[in-house]
Amino acid sequence: MNNDVRIAMLGSKFMGRAHSNAWMSVNKFFDLPCGAVMHSVCGRDEMATSAFGERWGWASALTDWERAVADPDVDLVDVCTPNDVHAGPAIAALEAGKHVACEKPLAGTLDDARAMRDAAELAKADGLRTFVWFNYRRCPAIAYAHRLIRGGGLGRIFHVRAQYLQDWGGPETPLVWRFDAGQAGSGAHGDLNAHLIDLTRFLTGEEITQVSGAVEETFVTERKLPGGGTGKSTVDDCVLFLARFAGGAVGSFEATRLATGNKNRNTIEINGERGAIRFDFERMNELLWWDDTLPSAQRGWSRVMCTNAGDHPYVEAYWPPGHGLGYEHGFVSQAADILASVGGAEPVVPIPDFADAWETQRVLAAAIVSAREGRAVPLDEIG
Amino acid sequence: MNNDVRIAMLGSKFMGRAHSNAWMSVNKFFDLPCGAVMHSVCGRDEMATSAFGERWGWASALTDWERAVADPDVDLVDVCTPNDVHAGPAIAALEAGKHVACEKPLAGTLDDARAMRDAAELAKADGLRTFVWFNYRRCPAIAYAHRLIRGGGLGRIFHVRAQYLQDWGGPETPLVWRFDAGQAGSGAHGDLNAHLIDLTRFLTGEEITQVSGAVEETFVTERKLPGGGTGKSTVDDCVLFLARFAGGAVGSFEATRLATGNKNRNTIEINGERGAIRFDFERMNELLWWDDTLPSAQRGWSRVMCTNAGDHPYVEAYWPPGHGLGYEHGFVSQAADILASVGGAEPVVPIPDFADAWETQRVLAAAIVSAREGRAVPLDEIG
Amino acid sequence: MNNDVRIAMLGSKFMGRAHSNAWMSVNKFFDLPCGAVMHSVCGRDEMATSAFGERWGWASALTDWERAVADPDVDLVDVCTPNDVHAGPAIAALEAGKHVACEKPLAGTLDDARAMRDAAELAKADGLRTFVWFNYRRCPAIAYAHRLIRGGGLGRIFHVRAQYLQDWGGPETPLVWRFDAGQAGSGAHGDLNAHLIDLTRFLTGEEITQVSGAVEETFVTERKLPGGGTGKSTVDDCVLFLARFAGGAVGSFEATRLATGNKNRNTIEINGERGAIRFDFERMNELLWWDDTLPSAQRGWSRVMCTNAGDHPYVEAYWPPGHGLGYEHGFVSQAADILASVGGAEPVVPIPDFADAWETQRVLAAAIVSAREGRAVPLDEIG
Amino acid sequence: MNNDVRIAMLGSKFMGRAHSNAWMSVNKFFDLPCGAVMHSVCGRDEMATSAFGERWGWASALTDWERAVADPDVDLVDVCTPNDVHAGPAIAALEAGKHVACEKPLAGTLDDARAMRDAAELAKADGLRTFVWFNYRRCPAIAYAHRLIRGGGLGRIFHVRAQYLQDWGGPETPLVWRFDAGQAGSGAHGDLNAHLIDLTRFLTGEEITQVSGAVEETFVTERKLPGGGTGKSTVDDCVLFLARFAGGAVGSFEATRLATGNKNRNTIEINGERGAIRFDFERMNELLWWDDTLPSAQRGWSRVMCTNAGDHPYVEAYWPPGHGLGYEHGFVSQAADILASVGGAEPVVPIPDFADAWETQRVLAAAIVSAREGRAVPLDEIG
Q: What is the maximum alpha-carbon separation in chain D?
């Protein structure tokens, strides 16, 4: 393809696998203006990165991200490193004239996020694009809900209820790096609330204007060390907060790793004047949809299997009705939308750029202020 | 029966019907130390009250609650009047030497509630009992969850999530008395959050120690008047707040009348170290139960039909397995527990008395302080 | 009420309780042209029947059904005796000029059923009415489905899938009378398939024209005797069969007492050209409804809470939206429809009379012929 | 990898895509003794096949299956052609010394299936392996149910209920090749009942010994032709039958394309003495599991998310808990099991070979005899 997009990917862990699979698969499933070329992967450990690259079909493997990012043969840098290593490579890549696709959250700190937003703003003039991998936007059920809501399906929105519940962080779980604030930035908050904030902003089309009452808690302060003994967890196990949206809706948010019984329950309900939607990622192929304009006798929560080609976004690229998709397809579909965007076409649903992800980051920051100062925090305070 | 309990009931609307049915049915279904005698009903409108009394089998009908309460033939006064008419009759009845069963919430104001608590405390010395009709405690699924949790089924509790979602209060709903603060005291808050606070205290066995971030909102400020024109709604449409429990758990609460798609979704999830439960009143015969002590491969949300005589509280009084109960059975079962208590037996699960309902009232009050002052409120402040 | 209907009820076990509750409650909840008067109850054991009658408010108690049925003060005889004692009292009652309401199935044998049908036909001339207590027709969700289908909601019907699954009949269950063909007539077949056949005929409005492939099985042939030792079960544990309907639909039926995990799963799905419905009695307040005329993107199984007064049949007599009904309300609502019919009004949905229940009985009989002769059986054969 | 397995794939439509994706992905996700090499794809249309091959990464593209199958560089032939083109290539491939993986059902006719079984039997002596792509066996939920049942989780099995419901075949669907018996062999029966028969045999470990009462129906006999006018459908729209299993269980089967509201509801319930399972492919990541050995108060249908690495088969190759899989992963996992088998390792759960798929084919044939002769058919008759 003469429109090849040559990709350098930084990171080779969980997200590295998900992205590799996406770049490998995207042109098989989608008809796109550009082809993905898996140019290079960059990781800390030379042997491991090399093995990873070979397995997944990356043409080369490096350990030095500065070199990876500066390579003139690279068109797009895909950043899947830990949150504290987002800003450096992303800004360097933009300065080197590359498009950048960065994992969420945008950054580990508000300062980093601001710098990234500014760099992206500057690079725009050179035609460079930025993208953030908020993968859940591209679930067909979420993308379809977005369309329904944009088409007026809910009318005025009253309520937003967003919870991201996991349970892998119980007292028996040892002190892995995710419980170290130095490496991880935050706990459930940055990892999971980031998704909820992005999704609710995306679905409602409204910004959050106030955060209040945030509760930040570390239930398990002392955890076993792999080598024996115990150490201190320095991140939150959960963060809850309440919010007000620009259009008048009120919302509740909760992210936790100790909600026993919930594996990956990323769930959202939105109630409006004309209808309502519910989504639960543990049943990701389904959208629950309530149409309040039907005759009242017939109204109900309708379980829409979002698997119809033509009807539901992205599905035509994959399988027939009722043949559900899985977690990884959000990444394949986002890769398709990134290639479409780079090639000058429209993505199926909007991809957050750094400016958009910055707004999500501000809400994350406001929640922490609210938790620590015990008060309501207008978003205007956070800049 | 020589252990007859002669009842005077104040009120003859929605709750009057539910209580009448309970008193009529209770001795048919349950074997009890006392029999309920439907002595008198008291309402404002003479004709309507008289017709109501005849229909439901009350021996007499009155319009003057002072007389009803003072009648020497009455053993127990059942208060189903509006919230602002709880304290007067309840205290008078106690002073007249009657047991009192009062509809929830205990009162419309903290001052009323305090006075009722104090009167109940005094009357205790005379062997008088007080009861508050938090009917949902007596759902078999809730009562069974209570037992499971008391038996250690959850271990240390991390999370409480409580929502009471209705949708009858949309913009088209006219300005009925429930939207007038003068008559109703509050909107969704006193009506629905009262249930949630009682249920979470009952289930966890823990008191709430702090409320934060409360959001109080009236979405529909102007409503149609039945006779034409519009008028102002002076109550909340929804109140949300976050909470901390004495044992370290964090909780979220939400009561609303504008959650489109939800008719009576009184739903609670509690996650603990050893297990978790979920309940939704729209499927009141089911308890979702997660046992985290099973082998991990087999763990799941188990839909327990709480309809087994012997296994699940109250059920042996009614029908065979799988033959579900309805809303009204909570009242019949509470009537049974009240008669048991008056007769010196143990209720199946504890009934809140005025002292217990006072604790619930304090949390309601704390949430309003939090909403109006934009800050976290320790319960110690509310006395 | 000068339109009192004086009732003699035969039987005082499970169904005796359900009917007593219905007659006690019906005029409280419903506005009707007639009032139910609980005149007399008749049982085998004098002491037990007398205690039962006192508890439930029957004016007198007898042990001789001939006397009960002949009493000139009685207007309606309610037959809740075992299946082999249906024909005798029902026919005698009709001959004595009483209306008759009989528990399902119509009879234990086809001969009995035919005689009852003929007696009812004769008595019609005298203005006497017959009713069969197929209580599930009066679930609001089923009655609403009936209306939807009659209104054309499904169009041409392709598929009927009906299962009535219980699990109380495992190998540990002792040899109670229900496992004795002499007393019980049949096992799961007469008890449970009778409901399914009535419901599918009621919902589709079509008769069954052929039964095929029936499988009749007794998994547990030897059961423990209460007094020690074991005895033979002489009834079916399950009967399955396939069917063809007059309008061209094909159907499957299954009744069993050994479907581990199912307490009272009376479940039906019907798929038509324009829509589909699903019902499960374990969630009796819900109808799943699929509208195939909606835009395809929005089609889904809609969980309709059938609890709206005005919208859903019977509900206006009871509680507000989302305040679900239970098993017993089917009986209360049928009692209302019986009183309405006797009083000259229309029932909310049709009540099967003996002629209608005879059609159901023929299908039961055809299934047994199919099972024993290993062949397809046209209904024309059964007369 | 020096253990490369060079694959020639015949067919390039729906299954061609699913298999290509599987061969492309398998060595990325799984650690295996062999690597898949995508050697050649063979289709009817030269241009289309060539484009397909390029897109999916096949090294060459052919239109002549005899050449493809005879190529000495090929180790395994993957047959995804229409059912009437299974026997020819599969037998030729075996004779040419290749392993064969064939799409289901084994063949369009019993004669073809028998010849394939015999050829496979002969080739076994040469170390050649045969595999049939009954992909649903490799859903983690199904594979886990298999393990549970093999481990005694159900005890003696009483009931099997299997339905494969789709709804794409309504009256508006035009006369595509799938409605032509010449090309398609059968309608829903061979396509969908084949899956159900394989799954129930796999899960129960029991053979079907009798089929009865089968109903075969073509609801829509006349369909629109793409070019205008109408033509006759010559296949079944649905086939239902009842069955007996060797261990004493009774079962019901239904396959249809006109079950409005069901997109791909491949659903199975099995009830045994010690427990029960339910599965629905529309929620493929979940197994409903009932443990009848728990204390009765705690028994319920447990929704097990089969997404735990270590606990649930295949999952360790993919994503973390709660990050569900999709339809295509059944193929990737089967490709892994095929490569494992060819490389001398054990598959995670057994793969049906031609001898095993022949047993499934006999049941399909018995059902048709039952339908056409209106009688019960012992499997002994079908050889």
A: 65
Type and span of the H or E element at C124? helix C110-124
Chain C residues with CB-CB distance to A297 below 8 A: 144, 304, 308, 311-312
Low-confidence ranges of chain D (pLDDT < 50): 1
Confidence (pTM): 0.97
Provide the shortest C-alpha distance from residue A288 to chain C (in Å): 8
Which residue of A21, A173, A319 to mutate against D (max D Cβ within 10 Å)?
A319
- Position A361 confidence tier, pLDDT thresholds 50, 70, 90: very high
d(CA D162, CA D359) in angstroms, rounded, equals 17
- Whether C210 and chain B come into contact, CB under 8 Å, resolves to no
Domain with CATH 3.30.360.10 in chain C: 140-283+285-320+354-373
**pLDDT for res A182:** 82
In D, minimum Cα distance to A18 occurs at D319
* Distance of alpha carbon D184 from the chain centroid: 16
Provide ipTM, 2 decimals: 0.96
Beta-carbon separation of C282 and B324 below 8 A: yes
Contact of D352 with D360, CB cutoff 8 Å: yes
How many Cβ atoms are within 10 Å of C284's Cβ, its own excluded?
Answer: 27
Q: How near does any CA of chain A get to the CA of D373, in Å? A: 34
CB atoms C302 and A298 under 8 Å: yes
Residue C184 pLDDT: 81
What pLDDT score does C183 carry?
Answer: 79
Q: Mean pLDDT per 10-residue run, chain C (383 residues)?
A: 87 96 98 97 97 98 97 98 95 98 96 98 97 98 98 98 97 92 88 97 98 96 92 96 98 98 98 98 98 97 97 97 97 98 97 98 97 96 94
Chain A contact for C314, CB < 8 A? Answer: no
pLDDT tens for each residue of A189-218? 999 999 999 999 999 999 999 999 999 999
3-class SS of residue B100: strand
User: Residue D362 half-sphere exposure, CB side, CA atoms within 13 Å?
Assistant: 21
Residue limits of CATH 3.40.50.720 in chain A: 4-135
**Strand ranges (E), B156-226:** 157-165, 208-217, 222-224
CA D166 to mean position of chain CA atoms: 16
Interface test with D, best of B149, B304, B312 (most D CBs within 10 A): B304
**Which of D 146-205 lie inside 8 A of C, CB atoms?**
158-159, 161, 163, 165, 167, 170-171
Comparing CB atoms, the residue among A287, A302, A310 nearest residue C302 is A302
In this predicted structure, what is the pLDDT of residue B1?
A: 46
Integer Cα distance of B155 and B143 in angstroms? 18
D290/C261 CB distance under 8 A: yes
From the candidates B12, B54, B285, B307, which should be mutated to test the interface with C, based on the most C CB atoms within 10 A? B285
**Would you identify the CATH topology of the domain C140-283+285-320+354-373?**
Dihydrodipicolinate Reductase; domain 2 (3.30.360)
Q: Do A298 and C304 touch (CB under 8 A)?
A: yes
Averaged pLDDT, A168-177: 93
Alpha helices in chain B (DSSP H): 14-29, 46-56, 65-70, 87-95, 110-124, 140-150, 181-184, 188, 194-204, 329-342, 354-373
- As assigned by CATH, the class of the D4-135 domain is alpha beta
CA-CA-CA-CA torsion sign (D207, D210, D212, D216): positive
Domain with CATH 3.30.360.10 in chain B: 140-283+285-325+353-373
Measured distance CA(D141)–CA(D330) in Å, rounded? 11
Smallest CA–CA separation between B301 and chain A, in Å? Answer: 7
**B248 neighbourhood in chain A, CB within 8 Å:** 219
Min CA distance, B360 vs chain A (Å)?
20
- Kindly indicate whether the domain formed by B140-283+285-325+353-373 is annotated with CATH number 3.30.360.10: yes
Which residues in chain B touch residue C1, judged by CB atoms under 8 angstroms apart? none
